[in-house]
Structure formats: structure tokens, C-alpha cells
Amino acid sequence: MSVLFRNAEAIVTSASAPVQRGADLLTDGNRIAAIGPDLEAPDGVEVIDATGWVIYPGLVNTHHHFFQCFVRNRVELDWTRLSLIEWLDTIYPIFAKLDEECFHHASLVAMAELIKHGCTTAFDHQYAFPKNAGTRLVDRQFEAAEILGMRFHAGRGANTLPKSEGSTIPDALLETTDGFLADCERLIGAYHDPSPFAMRQVAVAPCQPVNCWEETFTRSIELARDKGVRLHTHVGEGESPVIEARHGKRTVAYLEEMGFAGTDTWYAHCWELTPDEIRALAASDTGVSHCPEPVYLVGAEVTDIPAMAAAGVRISLGADGAASNDNSNLMHCIHSGYMLQCLAARTREYPVPFPADFLRYATEGGAEMLGRPELGRLEPGMAADLFAVDTRAMDYVGTRHDPVSLPAKVGFGAPVELTMIDGRIVWAKGEFPGLDELQMAARAEAAMHHALSR
To answer: How far apart (Å, rounded) are the C-alpha atoms in residues 260 and 243?
Structure first.
């Protein structure tokens, strides 16, 4: 299938390239074929009038927990009323109630919201495997991604350290290192596609150092590098003093010394890093998925993105899960991430990155983090992953002169006009083509109530 977007108001080919005004964009199958004025429409092409539209590269989400969609907007889990330990003791028993259907439907819910707001590639860090839910939870996530047409990277996580040894994990959610790695190997064999334009990939992603045996991390390194897949975990979200008490070093040094670092590795959060730790990440080329929305709720301090950018740390954006962000909207994270850094600017050594940089973190930055050079930009030969916003509405009067800064400075408060993934239109005119959104939502609600009522 080929699509010609005719007469766009602007085409933002990347956050750092000149904007193309009044241009057309032609796709051929799952790739961009051409961008420019007055393109010829090949036989059989679908022509879409893009008058007034700004077309952007699809967003790339590099950290999420889809299953947490079933615990959002709950007063009893409000971070402002609970300490971290009280919150963990409250929420993990809820996670333990979830069954296989919950994980499937929660994935549909999260991916649907992401797609509505321009996200075309999503990484999910699935670390909760309740004993009553079985072992095929990630399989059901891939099934959900196929239904919606999402380009999906699955992070197979795990928690292996018992509560009796200092973790926060109840026995109902505990796994063994052997069991975790065996399932990682199974998933890699069944789903991981290393080829360009792949729709399915897998990463080895033990949940976090405070809740896993050291062996879980060292053996994850061995497996991931043997299979040629990426590594991911949580770092720098308040756990460094605990790791230092256990191992005599903070989290970044602990992981780097064992080799859980490098170009194939990225960490989520990192809000408590010291200047030396930031320099260490830059030196090892370890990336950071910045999740701005959780900083509002649980961050002791604002992640020092300016210092990371100045040091040369690779940066991307993540929505994170509903335990600390009650939406699945990466577009909103572009705006909130920029505004959060502006709030903290007076206390920082380095200036806030430009608004365009936050769009770059959510596109090229995310693509680079996941090892996907064919994503994150719009140019011939790249993946046909994009979204479009109709800027003729009152919301955008006075803003259209700079569409690159628009997502960060103004933001998009409503679903986008259209989302295309792998050359296929998966969201347009307020609908998922060929799917009944109300029916999907009703089934998800039923699955949630069935599990949580037990």
C-alpha cells in the first residue's frame, strides 16, 4: 500500500533538520519514498489531503509498565498520602491479583493511548509475573501489539530477591534467576526480530538492583550479549543508598563494574545521579530514559537533563507506568519534560536544552536507544512511522511559525489527526480503523474488575 499526503502545512523531518513547508510525503509499503513539493501520485496510491497538517516522525517510548493501567486514579495509592514503603506494601499485593487477561487488556489500553498521541514504537518493562497469571504474559503483549499495529519492544523483567533478604517483593511476585532467564531465552527465540523495520524485539530487563540477586544481573549480561539483544533496568530513583549499604558502592558503579552498561544498555529514571555518575554514563555510552511525569510524584529531585546533555549522555523519553504516571501519553511527556527543566533551571549549572531537543529525545533519541536507525526521522528509505496534527484549530493560532518547538512549548492537548505505523494507518479521524474502541474498553474494564474483586 502507498499513501500520498498532499500539501502539508509543514513536514518536520527531524528535530534538527529544516522544516519543509507546503510539501507532500509519499510512502511505499512500510517506507518513506519521497518528500517534496508537487510529488506525482503513482497508480493505486491513496491520496490524503494534508492541508493544515504538520507531519512529524512517530514518537518512540523507551520506558513503560503497561500492566499498571489497572491501578491508576486510585485514592488509596496517592503518593502524597503514603511513604514509599507504605505505597509499595499497598500496591504489590494488588499487582499479585492480576491474571493473564489483565496483562493483555492493560497492554491494549496503554498502546491505544500511546498511538492516539503519536507514539509509533513502544518499549514496555514487564516485570510483574504473579504466580496465578502464568508465564505467557509477554506473549499476550505481543498479541495486543499486533491487534493495534504497534511497533513493540518487550522488556522481559523479573524480581528475584526475597523480601526476607531486603527486597519489597511479596512471594506471589517472586521469580528465580533460572526461570527468568529461561523465559527470556524462549521469548527471544519466539519473537525477537533483529532485522531493519522489525515490528517485534525483546530486551533482557531485570527490574531493579534492589529487588534482584546480583547473579540475576550478571547472568542477564551473559544472555543478552550472547543473543545480541539490549539490556535495561531501573537506576537512580532513590535506591543508591540501599545498594551502597549492601555492596559498598552506589548503583551506577555497582552496575558498571559488573558490565551492565554500554551502548547496548539504558537505564530508566536516573534522577539522583551525581555529576561523577553522569560522567560515567557518558564514558560508557549508557543511555537514560527520562520519565518526567514520575518526577512530580516520587522524585526527590528533578533529573539533571542539562548536565546529562552537556556530558554527552544519550537521552530518550519514557511515559512510565500508571503507578507514578496515570496516563500513557508520551506526547504529554515532551511538554512536561521541558517545563520541568525550566522549573529547575535556576539551580542548574547548564542551561535547559532547547524545546526542539525534547522532540528529538522522543524521536531520534528513542530510536537510537533501542538500536533502530531506521526510525525517528522522516526521509526516503526510513520507516513510514509518523503522526499528523491539524494546526488550523484555535489552539495553535500564533504557533505555526515553529512546528519543531510546538510539542514542547505549547503541547498537543488532544489526540492527533492520524498515526501511521509501518506504512499502515492505525489511527485516523478519531478511530482505530477496523476496531471497535468501545468494545475493547468494555472488555478491559471487565477484566480489571474480575481480577481486582478477588
So the answer is: 15
